[in-house]
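Continuing from yesterday's entry. The apo prediction looked reasonable, so today I'm repeating it with zinc ion included to see how the binding region is handled. Same sequence as before; SMILES copied from the compound registry.
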Amino acid sequence: MAVVETECIVLRSYDLADADKIAVLLTADHGIVRAVAKGAKRLKSKFGSGLEPLSRVNAAYFQKETRELVDLDKVEVIESAFDLVSSPELLTEFAYLIDILIACLPAEDPDPAMYRMVNASLSAVREHPEAIRPISLYFEAWLLRLGGFFPSWEVCSICDLAIGDDLDAQVGAEFQLICSRCRKSSGGETLTAIERNIIQRTRKESPMTFASEPAAEDSIKKLSSLLKRMIGRATGYERVDRALQAGVQIRR
Ligand SMILES: [Zn+2]
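Holo prediction written out below.
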């Protein structure tokens, strides 16, 4: 039985039989790990508040080669999630982001870049809670990119020429872009140079920089809706954005 010590972010924890809990952890070195925390439901559990979702902790667990679940031995909180779950809007958004992260990431697939991205995004929300929507878009873009689900938006998928400043590149059925010279029909979904540049920014900037100079709200909303459909296609995960739909109905 191997002992593993690693930094991780608690994604979720739920009750198991008796006094135990299961914690779903995004580890820095071993991808997503599911751990049994024995006695975690007891008042004086050794895990304390270390299993609160979105806490960043140092964890030690025992791993048996034959078992999918590991046995959590201890957790030490590095950064509590207290300030991240301060509003219902943040809670709802994080519940969604955790869902798609778990849907996109195969179990125990070590991806240090994914860990760094999630960690940096959480730090950005701590600093700029008002920018939860832009940070969420950043998160969605990187999830697609790191999962290998993001087509190149630099070039037209038909003629292979740079899309450049093309004003309205069309979004194809596979979410690839088609330049205005190649598109056969007008109408359909298009992306402006400004909107494509926002996605470029997510590639080049840290989430903190991206959040401190957020793009126009309408563009963030449009792009996020498109990326949600891309994630849905890639993972089978679908979320009906009720708040967004309600907003649209009120305006009509
Ligand atoms: Zn073209």
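Comparison notes:
- The chain is about 40% helix and 20% strand.
- The chain has two domains: 2-82, 86-251.
Will overlay with the apo model tomorrow.
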